[in-house]
Amino acid sequence: MQNELTVKANNSPPNVIEMRNVSKVFSREAAVQNLSFSIPEGVIVGFIGPSGSGKTTSVRLMTGIYQPSEGEVRVFGKDPSTFNSREREEIGYMTQLFTLDTDLSVKENMNFAAALYGYGWLSRRKPIKKLLDFVELSDAKSRLARKLSGGMQKRLSLAAAMVHDPKLLFLDEPTAGIDPILRRKFWDHFEALKAEGKTLVVTTQYVNEAAYCDLVAVMADGKLVMLDTPENLVRNAYGGEMLNLQKKGLLRRDELEELSSLPSMVKPLQVRPDGEIWFVVDDASKALPEVMNWLNAHEVEVISFEQYHPPYDDVFVKIIEDYNAGMAAEAQAMEAGVNA
Prior knowledge:
Blueprint lengths: L14 E12 L2 E12 L3 E5 L6 H9 L6 E6 L9 H4 L2 E4 L11 H11 L4 H14 L15 H13 L5 E5 L7 H16 L3 E5 L11 E6 L2 E6 L1 H9 L2 E7 L5 H8 L9 E2 L5 E5 L2 H14 L4 E7 L3 H28 L1
Parallel strand pairs: 3-7, 3-8, 5-6, 6-7
Antiparallel strand pairs: 1-2, 1-4, 8-9, 10-12, 10-13, 11-12
Helix pairs in contact: 3-4, 3-5, 4-5, 7-10
């Protein structure tokens, strides 16, 4: 399991966030345990995991709302719980639950949020209009927040979190309850913010949104199971890249064994009942022509042969299953040691 990722390249940007052996305990129960990772500037990091896995607690530690029971947290090189007002203005935080004033209108909430960060009446008009257009709430700007639907409240929370143009954004499930078209629009805007050099930490219940992130943190039981690029999550889950072959007819056992022994193969072939063959290879770009040459030489009639990109839902399930199996094996080993 990979539980730390630190960027070391010579031209890499500085780390905005650093967590070093961080644990947080509530009433003797650990919400997160031994978190160690670094997040560089100008990336989108997605935190995914089952409910109760520690995603929100991790975000609250990074914002300084919680202080760690053990370990240390550094944001912009400092303990975030000690930030002064100017330093805190560099952070935007959208909470999972709606925390704005339900007795104020949409526009009044936005004006109040902007005023908290020192924006005068004239200076805040343009950014507020732009943000309300973005979250598609301009037509509802006079409506009281308590009369908004859950999805509309979510959109208002996102706009308020961005009103002061922070360098670092923490977004706790920003797309929950949002329709797919607007969800895609949100991610387009997140990518535009990244292009401006901003850093975004996003928790999400939609595992396939991992594809939009530069780095993905997979959490379970308060632990960081894996932190890597979306591409490497697939490689780590399945042991390499995947190819899928659909053909006419069946291959003999000796042909399957010969195909499995090609240099690019890293695992035995998987043959489905319908005759489809799945390959796990080290490098799909090199394996595709190698396997195709073999198929042509053996006069195999190919229907389709291409690289397969498994859905991130499947990747996530595989990672968590492997993690649970590893934890079970570790527990059995410890029990065997105690009983020996």
